[in-house]
Amino acid sequence: MTSSDVISLHRTPYPSHNTTMDTLTLVTLLVAAILSIFFLHFIKKNTSPWILLRFLRNFYRMHDNQAELLEQNNGTILVKRSWFGGKDMLLTSDPANVRHILSTNFSNYPKGAEFRKQFEFFGDSVFTFDFEEWNHHRNAVRSFFSHRLFQQFAEKIVQDCIQIELTSALDQISNNQVVVDLEDLLRRYIYYSACCISTGYKPRFIGLALSEDKLLKATDDACDAITARYLVPESIWKLQRRFGLGKERRLREAEKTMDKIISNYMSMKQEEMSKGEIRNDEEDFSLLKGYTIGNEIFEQLDHKVIKDSTFGLIFAIEDTTSSSLSRFFWLLTKNPKVEAKIRQELEKVRPLTEAKSSSFFSDVEVGKMVYLQAALLETLRLFPPASMVSKTAAKPDTLPSGHHVSQNTMVIISAYAMGRMSMIWGPDCLEFKPERWIMEDGRIRHEPPHKFSAFGAGPRICPGKDVGLKVLETFAATIIYNYHVQVVEDRVGAPKNTFILHLDHGLMVRLIKRWT
Ligand code: HEM
After folding, report:
1. How far apart are CA 405 and CA 393, in angstroms?
2. CA 439-444-447 angle, 5° bins
3. How far is CA 296 from the centre of its chain?
4. What is the Å distance from ligand 1's center to 461 Cα?
5. Residues of 195-223 as b/e, b for ≥16 C-beta within 10 angstroms?
6. pLDDT digits (tens, 9 = 90+) for 397-456
7. N vs C: which end of the chain shows fewer Cβ within 10 Å?
8. Which residue in 106, 475, 463, 469 sits closest to 309, CA to CA?
9. How far is the CA of 313 from the centre of ligand 1 (A)?
10. How far apart are CA 208 and CA 175, in angstroms?
11. CATH code matching the domain that covers 47-124+133-513, chosen among 1.10.630.10, 2.40.160.40, 2.60.120.10, 2.60.40.10
């Protein structure tokens, strides 16, 4: 591969963990890691100091380290960070605990003040609220997502994005035989859909060979900084924030960028309203329109809640679905038999002889494709894009596993570890096997959410699950049917060290058209 045949989609916002570490964080973690290698030998195994040192030594592979530790400890570990001046942290992947925390004893496990501090970038919205405030917004969001007009609006946007925007870009890539980062490409087009769904406006064109998108870059910088806040002591990140250093400086810039871009969309909507040019519901049933003019679902709210909710929805759609889809294509390249079976299923619905330019599969068509759905669920089991869910114990409690949780303990449910536990999925838990999702009668097996927790569980379960799965199915079906995705750099495919599981080095591919 020469540099001349690579389309230069922006690579900088998604660098590897090494390059994203700023100096102060890196030095702190490296010193701690070196000391931990030495001290790990002298400390009793599985005690809190040992686990803390192991976290430090493995900070560059946090997801796999958590999964290994949880597998070795029956799915739960309590880390007494209060001995070292932090908050105690309980990490669990035990389905009985997950059901207790997310469902049965839900009222005792709000997101909490600690979460809001770490995720301040996400501001005031359903994602960060607790108790009454959360309940109120949650009801509105749920009614909105289940509204017939919203579903039609979202489906039309995704269809136009694939048929009009994406397929012409993919044809261009395959005709010119260039190499692209598929993860970056999918992010741009799913972001395009997410922005239309959330605001009712198309973002500036995000096609090939353009420079980075500012809002995507801001989101990545924010996710990086938020993850670092889990890893380094609060005093260090607060110091960095105060003096505008490293990731915290980039987080501040990200806040300004997000504020500017979303506020601009809000002004456009206000202007439409003041000129009496509000589009009808078929053309615009976006969240921002609902919040701006108020309707039977949304009351009018203050600027900050509207801004944060609008951005939150773009993030909820884009980051989760684009990272799952890239991971899905990465898994297919390692499992060609699965890809062949998906093709057979697609060609049963539409033989290749009937293929025509920009062949798109509708919601109804993908609804019939059980094997494709199973392969996507299997992807989400092994690589849940929202890798962990964080809560805080309001009162002391005892979990079904017998672990005592004191007040203000941070409780983290690792969805990544849950997908890799042999006690949940059996001895072949690390294998990619879509068949495990298909019942003997040929229908999809529905696993309870406290076992398959990619979408969370209980009252806070993801309200966009159906929309998210449809986005995955329609993008995946269109690409697999029309192109063969050939990976040109066989990388390990490690997950990026942030709470959203992007591929650490992207996915460099060529696309070969399957029919002419
Ligand atoms: C593959 C796709 C997706 C995955 C894996 C996913 C996963 C999740 C998870 C794990 C949560 C957190 C649950 C908790 O805090 O307990 C969540 C929350 C949420 N998701 Fe999704 N999501 C996806 C797509 C979407 C889409 C497409 C939308 C919107 C159309 C959406 C909207 C939301 C909202 C509004 C919340 C906040 C719910 C609350 O806190 O009450 N998600 N999602």
Report:
1. 7
2. 90
3. 30
4. 7
5. bbbbbbbebeebebeeebbbbbbbbbbbb
6. 999 999 999 998 999 999 999 999 999 999 999 999 999 999 999 999 999 999 999 999
7. C
8. 463
9. 9
10. 14
11. 1.10.630.10
- The torsion defined by the Cα of 236, 238, 244 and 245, in degrees rounded to 10, comes to 20
Q: How far apart are CA 100 and CA 316, in angstroms?
A: 25
Contacts for 369 with CB less than 8 Å, ≥ 6 apart: 342, 345, 346, 349, 361, 473, 477
Would you give the DSSP letter of residue 494?
P
Say if CB 65 and CB 55 are below 8 A apart. yes
103, 111, 462: which to mutate for ligand 1, most atoms within 8 A of CB? 462
The answer to whether 288 touches 269, Cβ cutoff 8 Å, is: yes
Question: Would the annotation count 223 as a binding residue?
Answer: no
Nearest to 377 by CA among 433, 330, 323: 433
Residue 106 carries which side chain, given as an amino acid letter? F
Spatial distance between the Cα atoms of 467 and 164, rounded to a whole number of angstroms: 20
Cβ–ligand 1 contact at 457 (below 6 Å):
no
The CA distance from 218 to 338, in Å, is 36
Q: Whose CA is nearest to atom 20 of ligand 1?
A: 462
Length of the chain: 516
Over the chain, what is the mean pLDDT? 87
DSSP code of 387? Answer: -
Residue closest by Cα to atom 31 of ligand 1: 464
Do the strands 89-92 and 410-414 form a parallel or antiparallel pair, or are they unpaired?
parallel
3-class SS of residue 177: coil
Q: With beta carbons less than 8 A apart as the criterion, state whether 237 and 33 touch.
A: no
Distance 434 CA to ligand 1 centre (A): 23
Kindly report, residue by residue over 374-410, the tens digit of the pLDDT: 999 999 999 999 999 999 999 999 999 999 999 989 9
Residue 373's nearest CA partner among 347, 338, 348 is 338
93: Cβ contacts below 8 Å, ≥ 6 apart = 67, 70, 75, 76, 413, 414, 417, 418, 421, 424
At residue 246 the predicted structure's pLDDT band, cuts being 50, 70 and 90, is: confident
Domain residue ranges in the chain:
47-124+133-513
Q: What is the CA radius of gyration of the chain?
A: 23
Q: Cα 42 vs. chain centroid, distance in angstroms?
A: 38
142 lines ligand 1 (CB under 6 A): no
Question: Residue 9 corresponds to which tokens in the numbers above?
Answer: 């989609």
pTM, two decimal places: 0.89
